[in-house]
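Q: Please design a sequence for this.
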């Protein structure tokens, strides 16, 4: 009798295990606690890189990437692509059977609509400008085929439309948006990703729930994924300790403490360069930083080695090249020589200011904010302002959230004010895309350099398909950026992400603003 009972009980348990959905076999919720969402928009056309943390789960890109940021035919809606011999026609073959969360089919018309929307005047994404410059037409010869026709030959279109950069490559539902309008879509987005939107509470969280099965990851391991906005680091760490958060960005100074407690910390090496710049006015650069000597003085006034230790807990290295994304250096053959490194030289900085007519210094606004993966943002701004104070430059610190700063920057409403970024490290195409956005005057949107010589070289790279010539142009751009002191490169940071003790094996990848939750959600 006892033996029979055991058999019945065992059989019932097996039946329950088989019948239960995938997420019932383990923890059904995944919670990611971040210090900042940067911007809390759900519409890919209204932001850029910073919203990828959560939007890359709701939307698929035309071109996928590997966790280390290389274009992949396995991870995007285009299962393959090829270009014409002159690199002016790019054909993308779409996966069949992909559906949006409202049940409608994804076709080439949705891709065309999405790209046109990403390039529209309404779009505020980082690469809307370059796409307008490059794309002449978008053809849809079949539901599963899109042809992008370019005005000039280029190699960079797949990267622009991939998950490695911004949001321009995300594919949106044409019929849903046309039927409901942009405002409804911004509140209730619909995509084709492995997770669909459930709820957003601004200033608190974004919640999504899994589809039954998805071509990217199969049956999702977690039924729900929630991104929590938790600006206070002590609170984020407390959530980790209590098991209420599974992934959290943490400051570098807390890494050793968490590791001693047994929490895995994933360190993305040289994930970003911390870079400062001056907002341009409607007519370009404004005094006093219009003077090259002033820009050099502001660079010499900063002790980068001390910042690497005191602000970033030693998990950083001094940087020397404005917008110099180090992952591209080897690819293009650029070598940072010892004389390119900025020494900490207060005396020379003061002399340069005096020579430029600013012996008494000057005042400038410095915006102070946090960014995802950059929990030290405000303390970093305070530290730099302190260094500048020593050479007579008085900085007015303006605490603000990132969306408010970005509007001032894009609208050029605060000429001469200082902003900063943890700019994602990238390969040569990603580096070029950044330079085109931030250093190319014709692009207008986020230009922070205003240098005709650099404009000419960037325009040549866009139209060039010979890699040796591209490499030479990129090296010359870097040399010019450094010699003219176009910005304030401070440090390369190694970015830590702590996880719960029970999360298991996890590779957060190397694509900034994207933690590749796919790797966790894949069963």
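A: Design:
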């Amino acid at each position: 009798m006892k033996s029979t009972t055991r058999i019945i009980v065992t059989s019932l348990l097996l039946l329950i295990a088989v019948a239960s959905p995938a997420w019932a076999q383990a923890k059904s919720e995944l919670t990611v606690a971040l210090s900042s969402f940067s911007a809390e928009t759900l519409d890919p056309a209204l932001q850029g890189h910073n919203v990828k943390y959560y939007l890359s789960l709701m939307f698929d890109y035309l071109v996928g990437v590997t966790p280390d940021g290389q274009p992949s035919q396995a991870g995007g809606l285009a299962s393959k692509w090829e270009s014409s011999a002159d690199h002016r026609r790019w054909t993308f073959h779409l996966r069949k059977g992909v559906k949006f969360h409202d049940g409608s089919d994804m076709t080439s018309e949705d891709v065309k609509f999405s790209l046109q929307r990403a390039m529209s005047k309404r779009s505020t994404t980082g690469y809307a400008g370059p796409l307008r410059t490059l794309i002449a037409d978008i053809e849809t010869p079949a539901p599963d085929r899109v042809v992008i026709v370019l005005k000039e030959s280029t190699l960079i279109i797949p990267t622009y439309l991939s998950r490695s950069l911004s949001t321009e490559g995300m594919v949106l539902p044409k019929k849903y948006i046309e039927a409901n309008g942009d405002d409804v879509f911004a509140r209730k987005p619909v995509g084709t990703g492995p997770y669909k939107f459930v709820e957003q509470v601004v200033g608190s969280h974004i919640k999504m729930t899994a589809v039954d099965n998805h071509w990217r990851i199969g049956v999702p391991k977690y039924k729900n994924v929630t991104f929590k906005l938790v600006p206070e680091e002590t609170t984020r760490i407390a959530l980790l300790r209590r098991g209420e958060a599974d992934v959290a960005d943490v400051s570098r100074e807390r890494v050793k403490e968490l590791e001693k407690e047994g929490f895995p910390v994933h360190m993305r090496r040289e994930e970003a360069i911390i870079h400062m710049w001056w907002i341009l006015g409607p007519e370009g650069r404004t005094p006093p930083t219009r003077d090259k000597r002033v820009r050099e003085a502001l660079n010499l006034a900063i002790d980068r080695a001390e910042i690497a230790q005191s602000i970033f807990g030693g998990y950083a290295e001094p940087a020397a090249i404005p917008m110099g994304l180090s992952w591209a250096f080897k690819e293009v053959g650029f070598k940072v020589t010892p004389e390119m490194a900025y020494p900490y030289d207060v005396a020379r900085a003061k002399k340069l200011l005096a020579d430029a007519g600013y012996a008494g210094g000057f005042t400038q606004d410095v915006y102070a904010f946090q960014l995802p993966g950059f929990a030290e943002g405000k303390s970093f701004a305070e530290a730099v302002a302190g260094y500048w104070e020593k050479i007579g430059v008085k900085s007015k610190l303006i605490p603000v959230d990132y969306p408010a700063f970005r509007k001032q920057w894009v609208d050029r409403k605060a000429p001469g004010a200082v902003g900063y970024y943890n700019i994602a490290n990238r390969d040569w195409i990603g580096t070029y895309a950044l330079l085109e956005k931030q250093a190319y005057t014709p692009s207008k949107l986020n230009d922070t350099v205003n240098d005709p010589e650099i404009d000419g070289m960037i325009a040549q790279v866009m139209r060039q398909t010979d890699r040796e010539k591209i490499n030479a142009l990129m090296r010359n751009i870097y040399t010019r950026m450094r010699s003219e002191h176009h910005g304030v490169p401070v440090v390369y940071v190694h970015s830590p992400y702590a996880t719960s003790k029970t999360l298991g094996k996890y590779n957060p990848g190397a694509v900034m603003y994207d933690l590749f939750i796919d790797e966790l959600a894949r069963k």
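Q: Thanks. Anything notable?
A: The chain is about 35% helix and 20% strand. The longest helix spans residues 2-19.
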